[in-house]
Every structure is written in structure tokens, then in C-alpha cells.
Amino acid sequence: MKTKIATFIAAILLTQTLLPSYVFADQASYKDGFGQKISSSKDQTLTAVLGAKVGQNFKTGSILLKPEFKLAAVCDLMQDGDNLNVSTGLNSYSVKTEQLEKFGIETGLKVLTALTDNVELSVSYDGQFRSDYYNHTASFSVKYCF
After folding, report:
1. Distance (Å, rounded) from C-alpha 41 to C-alpha 84?
2. Contact assessment for residue 146 and residue 118, using Cβ atoms and an 8 Å cutoff
3. HSE (CB half, 13 Å, CA atoms) of 40?
4. Going by C-beta distance under 8 Å and a sequence separation of 6 or more, which residues neighbour residue 12?
5. Coil, strand or helix: which one is 49?
6. Strand runs labelled E in the chain
7. Residue pair 80/62 in contact by the 8 Å Cβ criterion
8. Which of 37, 77, 80, 119 has its CA 20 to 30 A from that of 24?
9. Helix, strand, coil percentages in the chain from 3-state DSSP, rounded to 5
């Protein structure tokens, strides 16, 4: 009985990330389904992301595997928080908006498989974690190159 041992071509790939991100959201005033007028708001957020991604390529037979893991620290350098003013025609009140915690963690895991020169499959997970806030994203993709 013969045992077949897969041959691996392995190289550890390390990528550092420093990413500034700026978001400006301008919401015009509107009336909701109950006829209440909601005031306009303008919000700005400036975020810095510092992290790293590590991956390694493995070739076994004709299949290429590319797993990756990423981890990053997130910090909101600037956050606007507006109070929304609501008017019903008879009454008016103010709604205080909540902001996310200033610091957070982002993490991700991805495995890409190159089945042939033309076909790639990938599965990934990304998570964002802050106090009282969690965002989980999973995806599956098939890519055909021609």
C-alpha cells in the first residue's frame, strides 16, 4: 500500500494596513409614515484602521489553496452625533442619537481555492466588534476567468 504525500509550496505573506476612512452623510428632512416631520442631519466620521493580514499559499496536486487571516484595531478619530428634531404639528421633541464606541476590533478569515487556471472558489468571514455592536459578514464566491 502506497501513501501519497502532497507537496507544498509555502510562503508566508504578511501585509500591514494603515487605512484612514472618512464618511459624510447628509440626510434631508422628511415626513415619516405618521406625518411627523424629521429634521435634516449632517454626520461626519473619521476612522483609522491599523492591522495586518497573514496568508500562506499551498499547492497540492493541481489545487492551489490561499488561506488568509486578518486582524485590525479601529479607532474613530471624529464622530458627529446629532439630535433629531421631530414635529407632529401639535408637539415637538428631540431624539438623541447614539454613537458607536470609539475603539473596536475587525477580524476576518478567507480561504480561496484555485481549482484550475480559470476557476476560483472562495469562502470568507469578516467580523467587526465594538461595545454593544457586532457585525458579522460571510460570503461565498465563484470566479470564472476567461
Report:
1. 7
2. yes
3. 6
4. 54, 55, 56
5. strand
6. 12-27, 30-31, 37-38, 41-56, 58-60, 63-79, 83-87, 92-96, 103-114, 119-130, 133-144
7. no
8. 37
9. 0, 70, 30
What does pTM read for this prediction?
0.69
Residue 2: φ, ψ to 5°: -100, 145
Cell numbers 507544498 correspond to what residue?
8
Distance CA 88, CA 36 (A): 5
Q: Using CA atoms, how far apart are residues 120 and 118, in angstroms rounded to an integer?
A: 7
Beta bridge partners of 53: 15, 70
Give how far the C-alpha of residue 67 lies from the chain's centroid of Cα atoms, to the nearest Å.
18
| End-to-end Cα distance, the chain | 41
